[in-house]
């Protein structure tokens, strides 16, 4: 992925990119559930 003149490579190639996306989805779900429990 390129932004301007900088080349951005996800750590671990395609698999690392997938894992990062999965992790962010899971983290947001967990945070939402925790917030709902607290409120």
UniProtKB/TrEMBL annotation:
This is Uncharacterized protein. The lineage of its organism: Bacteria, Bacillati, Actinomycetota, Actinomycetes, Micromonosporales. It comes from Micromonospora nigra. Keywords: Membrane, Transmembrane, Transmembrane helix. The chain crosses the membrane at residues 12-38.
